[in-house]
Design goal:
By secondary structure, this protein is mainly alpha-helical. Helices cover 77% and strands 5% of the residues. Strand 1 (39-41) and strand 2 form a beta hairpin. Helix 6 (116-131) packs antiparallel against helix 8 (147-171).
């Protein structure tokens, strides 16, 4: 299936009440995980790791890039509003990076067989297109830290954690197969 057809099919998913209900639950889970499971390392406060990617991956696999982008972007906004609206406040550029992450996961994982290769490609694309270059650029400007210094620190943490994310995503495959069987 071409990428444009994935977007069209994902958009059509939004016409189903069941899809809206599941996306709302994934959004709620994204907000909860965004608030309670994200943490920063004491020696690197500009690197945030957590488990809020799980509902985005689930949404991307089940309903595609449009739904995953909505859950990812809205989840970021709601997490900021509910958790700590004064820390860095809302940054639309960072939210756009989260939306792109949802799109990338959706394009790669939607209507795929969810093989390990697909998961690795999705995570590598998110790291190489969003998390490392774009988010680092935005944080560099916000924190007034040289880009390449910040990039090295973030890469040292995010690449190994990316491997852990791939393993966690692979572990939820049986759950996703059960959900997909119910969906159809």
């Amino acid at each position: 299936m071409t990428y444009l057809k994935k977007f069209a099919s994902s958009s059509k998913e939004l016409t189903h009440v069941q899809t809206l209900a599941v996306c709302a639950m994934m959004l709620a889970l994204r907000v909860i995980l965004g608030i309670f499971t994200n943490f920063t390392l004491a020696f690197m406060p500009f690197v945030k790791i957590g488990f809020s990617f799980i509902p985005i991956v689930i949404t991307a696999y089940l309903y595609g890039p449009v739904c995953a982008a909505i859950v990812s972007g809205a989840g970021d906004v709601l997490s900021i509003i509910l958790a700590n609206p004064t820390a860095f406040s809302m940054n639309p550029a960072l939210t756009a990076c989260y939306v792109w992450e949802g799109i990338i996961y959706g394009v790669v994982l939607y209507q795929s067989e969810f093989k390990l290769k697909d998961i690795i490609i999705a995570k590598a694309a998110v790291l190489l297109l969003c998390s490392l270059p774009l988010t680092t650029l935005i944080l560099s400007g916000m924190m007034n830290i040289p880009y390449f210094t910040l990039l090295l620190y973030r890469a040292a943490v995010l690449i190994p954690f990316g491997v852990i994310e791939v393993l966690i995503t692979r572990l939820i495959k049986p759950l996703l197969n059960r959900i997909k069987a119910i969906k159809t």
